[in-house]
Amino acid sequence: MSSGRRGRISDEEINELISKLQALLPESSRRRNANRSPASKLLKETCSYIKSLHREVDDLSDRLSELMSTMDNDSPQAEIIRSILR
């Protein structure tokens, strides 16, 4: 994405980036944005989605820690979990 003007992004490049960003959102967000919502709304939804992913990662990490604390470190199940995390 090089631009003839230094530091400036063309409208075409912005539209391409918005399309790429929109493709990364869950299906429900893509349907809501199908009517070409403004970029600001898409960015807000993207930020919200990223925050929800962070919460989900934190929750899964907590649940995994709890599970591992109740497991024998030498058990086959603990070894499976360790191999997945590598």
- Largest sheet entry: none
By secondary-structure content and strand pairing, the structural class works out as mainly alpha
Reading the helices and strands in chain order gives HHHH
Number of helices: 4
Radius of gyration: 20 Å
Task: Determine the strand fraction and express it as a percent band.
Answer: under 5%
Low-confidence stretches are none
* Distance between the first and last residues' Cα: 35 Å
Family: Belongs to the bHLH protein family.
Protein name: BHLH domain-containing protein
Pfam family, one: bHLH_ILI
Keywords: Growth regulation, Transcription, Transcription regulation
Question: Can you describe this structure?
Answer:
With 86 residues, this protein is mainly α. Helices cover 71% and strands 0% of the residues. The mean pLDDT is 84.
